[in-house]
């Protein structure tokens, strides 16, 4: 009888374990499916213009390719001091314990980059949420970069707001081509030319490095960091790599390269392949397949694994989703492999659901990464 009971128990346990695994698999499939449903609704319908509807960008693309290539080899660039920015601040609100300011500053990029920008993007906008009762040298501040389609400060301020209790300030940068910096002819986040994507990234890197330099040298913060979701995570990884001082670096739901997003993931359905082919056909007689290969080649310039290891790789934490329809797991592991000492954390969900459900995991990663830094001496 005891043998039968034992067998029964093992059978029930196995059945329960199998059922649990099936539920996990089904939930994973659901998250992945939701990413593709969302992508199909947003990107495969004619509700909005696709990415790169105006083609490659002509001479601007040639300029951007050459400027990005100047970052390699990067060892010298990593030690170059950023250009200090000087935001002009206005108070938005203030309480006994915290305040929110908004600032504006001229983008610190070189003139060749500025001339390639739309006039709307010449001036950068930033929001700065900080505690009031602690001196800056006893506080940390993290710069939050925008994901695709994040045109306002609100979502990133909500992510950083609860960290005020742990004396962590939040600085939110409005990306070029986004929000009030969006060109008049651009619809939503759908960049008009391929050159715009490289330009957005390069300018974001320079502005972020300038803000970090301001936080460290002018404001006197004891620790600093950089984070971003999706596209913002790619840019955060680049900034963390290039900054001359150790900072916390937190790429959330980020691929190792824009190639993954636009040539392999859901966004390939949002790319104006025919417009790219037609734009190049006038000069080279390019086929559709050749257009796809050229885009892959151009976007390979955004491959973060080509960037140097940050000054403190232990303060790098990647947070990725188990069932991401936009970012495959191999892309995340490539990042971790390129930066030995960094950490990968997984949240259960897809790309879209993790944006909504896992803010606490993102906040914990921020706290933990900052905890792995030494306090700066003034």
Rg (C-alpha, Å): 22 Å
| Outline | globular
What's the helix-strand series?
HHHEEHEEHEHEHEHHHEHEHH
Roughly what fraction of the amino acids lie in strands? Answer: 15-25%
- Whole-Å distance between the termini? 75 Å
- Spatial sequence of strands, sheet with the most strands: 1-2-3-5-4-6-7
Q: What quaternary form is this?
A: single chain
The helix fraction, in percent, is: 40-55%
Unreliable stretches: 1-25
- Characterize the largest beta sheet: strand count, sense, and whether it forms a barrel: 7 strands, mixed
Category by helix and strand content: alpha/beta
**Number of helices, counting only DSSP H or I runs of 4 residues or more:** 13
The chain-level mean pLDDT equals: 87
How many beta-strand elements?
9
Kindly describe this structure.
There is one protein chain. The protein is α/β, with parallel strands linked by helices and 378 residues long. 45% of the residues lie in helices and 16% in strands. It has a 7-stranded mixed β-sheet, with helices on both faces. The model is unreliable at 1-25 (pLDDT under 50). This is Protein ABHD18. InterPro entries: ABHD18 (IPR019149). It comes from Zingiber officinale.
């Amino acid at each position: 009888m005891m043998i039968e009971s034992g067998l029964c128990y093992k059978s029930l346990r196995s059945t329960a374990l199998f059922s649990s695994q099936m539920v996990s698999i089904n939930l994973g499939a659901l998250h992945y499916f939701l990413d593709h449903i969302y992508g199909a609704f947003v990107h495969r319908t004619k509700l909005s213009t696709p990415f790169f509807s105006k083609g490659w960008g002509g001479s601007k693309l040639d300029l951007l390719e050459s400027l990005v290539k100047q970052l390699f080899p990067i060892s010298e660039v990593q030690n170059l001091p950023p250009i200090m920015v000087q935001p002009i601040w206005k108070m938005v609100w203030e309480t006994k314990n915290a305040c929110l300011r908004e600032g504006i500053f001229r983008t610190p990029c070189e003139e060749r980059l500025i001339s390639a920008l739309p006039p709307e993007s010449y001036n950068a906008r930033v929001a700065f949420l900080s505690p009031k009762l602690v001196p800056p040298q006893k506080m940390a501040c993290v710069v939050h970069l925008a994901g695709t389609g994040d045109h306002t400060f609100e979502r990133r301020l909500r992510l950083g707001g609860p960290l005020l209790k742990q004396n962590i300030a939040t600085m939110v940068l409005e990306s070029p081509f986004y929000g009030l910096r969006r060109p008049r002819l651009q619809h939503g986040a759908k960049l008009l030319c391929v050159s715009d994507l490289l330009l957005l990234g390069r300018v974001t890197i320079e502005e972020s490095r300038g803000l970090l330099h301001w936080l460290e040298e002018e404001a006197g913060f004891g620790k600093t960091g950089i984070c971003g979701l999706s596209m913002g995570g790619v840019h955060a990884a680049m900034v963390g790599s290039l900054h001359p001082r150790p900072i916390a670096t937190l790429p959330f739901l980020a691929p190792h390269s824009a190639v993954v997003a636009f040539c392999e993931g859901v966004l390939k359905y949002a790319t104006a392949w025919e417009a790219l082919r037609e734009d190049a056909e006038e000069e080279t007689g390019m086929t559709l397949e050749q257009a796809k290969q050229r885009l892959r080649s151009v976007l390979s310039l955004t491959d973060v694994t080509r960037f140097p290891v940050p000054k403190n790789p232990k303060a790098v934490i990647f947070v990725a989703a188990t069932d991401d329809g936009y970012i495959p797991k191999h892309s995340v592991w490539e990042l971790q492999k390129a930066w030995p000492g960094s950490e990968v954390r997984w949240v259960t969900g897809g790309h879209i659901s993790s944006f909504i459900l896992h803010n606490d995991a993102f906040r914990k990663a921020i706290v933990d990464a900052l905890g792995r830094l030494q306090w700066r001496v003034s």
